[in-house]
Amino acid sequence: MRGISIPFVSKRPDKDGGRDAWQPDEHPRHGTGVTLRIAIIGAGAAGLVTAAKLAERGQTADLFEASDRLGAGAASWLAGGMLAPFCEAEDAGPGIVAPGHAGIEWWAATVPDVRRGGTLVVAPARDRGDLARFARRTAGHERIGAERIAALEPDLAGRFGEALFFAEEAHLDPRLALENLAERVTSAGSRIHFGSTVAPQALDHDVVVDCRGSAAAGEIPALRPVRGEMLILRTQDVSLSRPVRLLHPRWPVYVVPRGDGLFMVGATVVETDDRRSVTARGMVDLLNAAYALHPAFAEAEIVETGSGLRPAFPDNLPRVSRDGRVVSVNGLYRHGFLLSPAMADEAVSHILGERLKAAS
Prior knowledge:
The chain is α/β, with parallel strands linked by helices. It has helices at about 45-55, 85-90, 95-110, 130-135, 145-150, 175-185, 280-295, 335-350, 355-360; strands at about 10, 40, 60-65, 80-85, 120, 140-145, 160-165, 170, 190-195, 205-210, 225-235, 245, 255-260, 260-265, 300-310, 320-325, 325-330.
């Protein structure tokens, strides 16, 4: 599988018994029956899911979040919330499907309002070649015609002659999900310290889980930031039941319904660490794509614009790595909600020593 076997890099801890000498496979006190002092840096999707997974094993954590409130500046706050392993496999490879499916099941069991209505992928008539190419590079879909499109999404009736329907995919509202997780982990005894910018080695906890995302670029080899821009539109003239992806050679886009006439439209992909607000070009591209999906979006109210930096490795797949007592979970790129449960499982297994014990 392309990387999403979840690459793990282990740098053996110091031999002098210093603060970097944590060895979970050699310390039985670190089993599930004993409480560890665990710190998590970052309260985005990766950090909160890791805290939730630890809570399932009877562990609590101190979460240190640089921003002054939940979601401020976090890539996961600006996410579309699509749980789309088959669609994402078009770019990431088929290895993403199994952990992505597990992610859907975990989210559905953990937070309310996970919508399991699938994903619809469409293309303008002139770009049907892109739809055929997407179909060849993915699985888990049904090729459907205009009548079925109209049955699934009546407001798209007559606009597209064919589409791909990925029935097993899902979506959620990322902001509601993050708020739910924050409440869940604090109710279980974890604490979130907002406005706290800390370095992993500066903390004296038994284990530090580094979930800083793009903020760790420059410290983690090969990690880079990738800029993304999004819009939230409001209109009562369009109704969608599921995320719709519009394929286009220049600006593929997705539109995700959020309820109450709100739609998230995203997202650009720009190889830069530029932290500016949404650019004029980015907004025009996203609005043009939304208009191509349905002309009623031309009269929609622009409720919010946002831009952020996604963390990515060269293969655009996430990694768990360990350096002494620091475990890093990073590189989730466009797959933060889809793959954070699998990555958190991997991190927790290392924290509690289970992976190394199983391999011995």
